[in-house]
Amino acid sequence: MTDPITEARQRAEGLKAAIRSFYDGVMPVDLKRKSRLHQVLDKDDYVRWMRLLNDQGWAVGHWPKEYGGQAWSLLERFSFEDQLARLGCPWVIPFGVKYVGPVIYAFGSPEQKARFLPRIATTDDFWAQGYSEPGAGSDLAGLRTEAIRVESSEGDHYVVNGQKVWTTYAQWADWLFCLVKTARGEQAQKSISFLLIDMRSPGVTVKPIPTMDGYHHVNEVWLENVRVPAENLVGAEGEGWTYAKYLLKNERTAGAIVGMAWHALERLKGLAAEAAPASRDRLETRIGELELRFMALEVASYQAVESMMRGTEHGAEASLIKLRGTELYQHIAEAAVDTLGLAGVAWDAAALHAAAPPPLGPEDAGGIVKDHFYNRAATIFGGASEIQRNIVAKGVLGL
């Protein structure tokens, strides 16, 4: 009998080959160019990208077959994002297909599954994540957004008041999946519920938060007396913390971190090859150190995924991958900007929107600097490095 891990490896290699063929023969030239130059993608670009993936059966390939997926193994899921990132493809927007979709098919009502899952797969609905709040980022148990249930002749509903922050692409979203407090005086984790909020509802206000790359990624979302039908509650009241943990556990792999690091490292090597001879020795030493760190990350990541499949993981592997991967990516990006020299200083955000050439340096110089700026946040979002170190210490060292 074939070992399940061996079978998963074979399927993962087949998936990687299919992705490379898709990139070479199917992916539109304009989208490929934008991605290669790290230019800004707008909502239409991302929707088109997600629908292209869905046409291949990949957007929800990790979902169970009964909901339209392919029941990928963890290794296939990891390899999928890893390969896309190595090719420099656009981000796989996670909020619908990776986050709220699995929560709905695991805990939602039959009506919710029928209503939302098909539109998530096709990106007919664009989703945002309403978790973090001022004072409640890594410590989600401290959230304050409140939802009070009201029974009326017009139908039961919740009245929601509060504020969410760092809400990525909320300006494009049709729906917000949101953690809210539905009880007082209870233990914090027992007072949280999981609501689906229509972003067109009266009382929803989105305010942009400028970031230093000159682009509109993140937002504040204000919720002021927002009426949410009671049927938009996922599962039971007070079980939102359980569903939030499921969401995070369901997305323990971080293949894109490995792939992004590889892609950035390859570009750094290209920049170094074009650098002045006097600086090449220093660059080669720096690149060698980064490459050794990448090799360790790659091996550890794939070993961790296979441990998860076997059920032999320690519980801190995903934190280790996230910690090492994001820090490595930042250091590679720093080295790339250093190697650009003056072209790394002549920053023109407008060029990334207008597809115009940068003021100095190679045609992707602006994109390299943009990624460097944006990914200063990589060691914060998704769980700050300090939190990841605590998880590793607790899970591995028993501290």
Strands, count? 7
Strand order within the widest beta sheet = 2-3-7-6
Alpha carbon gyration radius: 22 Å
What's the helix-strand series? HHHHHHEEEEEEEHHHHHHH
Helix content: 40-55%
| Distance from first to last alpha carbon | 41 Å
Shape: globular
CATH topology of the largest domain: Butyryl-CoA Dehydrogenase, subunit A, domain 3
Structural class based on helices, strands and sheet pairing:
alpha+beta
Major sheet size, sense and barrel closure: 4 strands, antiparallel
The H-level CATH homologous superfamily of the largest domain, spelled out, is: Butyryl-CoA Dehydrogenase, subunit A, domain 3
| Low-confidence runs of at least 5 consecutive residues | none
Summed up, the helix count is 13
As an assembly, this protein is single chain
Strand content: 5-15%
Q: In words, what does this structure look like?
A:
This protein is α+β, with helices and mostly antiparallel strands and 399 residues long. Helices cover 50% and strands 13% of the residues. The protein has helices spanning 4-25, 29-36, 43-55, 74-86, 94-107, 110-121, 240-250, 255-273, 277-310, 317-340, 349-354, 365-374, 385-397, and strands spanning 127-130, 146-150, 157-165, 175-181, 192-198, 204-209, 218-229. The strands form 2 sheets. Strands 2-3-7-6 form a 4-stranded antiparallel β-sheet, with no helix packed on it.
